Amino acid sequence: MEKDVRSVRVTATRELILATAERMFAERGVHEVSNRQISEAAGQGNNTAVGYHFGTKTDLVRAIVRKHSEPIEARRRELLAEIGSSADVRDWVTCLVRSATDHMGSLGTPSWLARFSAQLMNDPSLREIQIEESLNSPTLRQILDGLNQCLVDLPLPVRLERGDMARHLIIQMTAEFERALAEGTPTTRATWREMADGLIDGIVGLWTAPVTT
Question: Residue 122 — pLDDT band, cuts 50, 70, 90?
Answer without folding.
Answer: confident
